[in-house]
Amino acid sequence: MKITYYGHSCFSIETGGKHLLFDPFITPNELAKDINADTIPADYILLSHGHEDHVADAISIAKRTNATVVSNFEIVNWFGRHGIKKGHPMNIGGSWAFDFGKVKYVNAVHSSVLPDGTYGGNPGGFILNIEGKNLYFAGDTALTMDMQLIPKFAKLDLAILPIGDNFTMGVEDAVVAADFIQCNRILGVHYDTFGFIKIDHEAAKKTFSAANKELTLLEIGASLSL
């Protein structure tokens, strides 16, 4: 399984010949200027919530690839009204077995509105069981006690957590979140893109290391294997 980071909270998972793309915000992101969104493959596009910095390229990529959009009921319906023919609506606590693996949509503490001001439903995160591995993408969220439920559903091999602070958890809260979800291998996202969320990379890694956890911060366009 290959995970590629495209900046901000956007990444892809390549597994079993399928390409899963999460929260595509590429074209407006100056830090991702070397990434061409028009060349990224997608069989599924999973959206944690409706904010523009998570859905900016979703319509164009979905139309080009004929990908299935997976998100909450409100967001999937909104994409349907914008010409996206394939969608799979979910809501908090629900799960579904797709052809690539199982997905459970879980709570996130944040807000959600679509780029035109339409209500975006409840923000969420995803627990994925793929190729016998369990991953958790938290989406945009504060630290929440609900994270303590996640180990009851899955023993995680990797967690993808926001660490930029101001709009989401910061580094210190993300360390507590890693304890709650019982996962010591963390991929950080949602940092550096804007002035409000710039972080000290080495200090962040040291904070996680001091808690006996590993924080990975990928360069945009770089990948890791799981």
From TrEMBL:
MF terms (GO), sorted A to Z: hydrolase activity
Q: Which residues form the Metallo-beta-lactamase domain?
A: 7-179
Q: Which Pfam families match?
A: Lactamase_B_3
User: InterPro entries annotated for this entry?
Assistant: Metallo-B-lactamas (IPR001279), RibonucZ/Hydroxyglut_hydro (IPR036866), UPF0173 (IPR022877), UPF0173_UPF0282_UlaG_hydrolase (IPR050114)
Q: Which domain of life is it from?
A: Bacteria
Assigned keywords, A-Z: Hydrolase
* Protein family according to the UniProt entry: Belongs to the UPF0173 family.
In terms of NCBIfam families, this protein maps to: PRK00685.1
* Full protein name: UPF0173 metal-dependent hydrolase AAG747_00935
